[in-house]
Design a protein that fits this description.
It contains 3 helices and 2 strands. It is of the alpha+beta class. Strands 1-2 form a two-stranded antiparallel sheet.
Length: 56
């Protein structure tokens, strides 16, 4: 999932299991280096990603 998000939607995330082994079903997002205009389209890109996989 992490690789596919980066490759297909240009969204970088980390698997939650890097922080806590029990968080294997979670993704961690970082917003620190983004400007507001860059963050605005994130929701649409994540929706498109989910719809392409039939999980919308």
């Amino acid at each position: 999932m992490v690789r596919a998000l980066a490759r297909e939607q240009d969204v970088a995330v980390l698997p939650g299991s890097l922080f806590t082994p029990s968080d294997e079903r979670y993704l961690r997002f970082s917003f620190a280096a983004l400007e507001e205009r860059q963050l605005g389209g994130l929701g649409a890109r994540l929706r498109a990603f989910g719809e392409a996989r039939g999980s919308a």
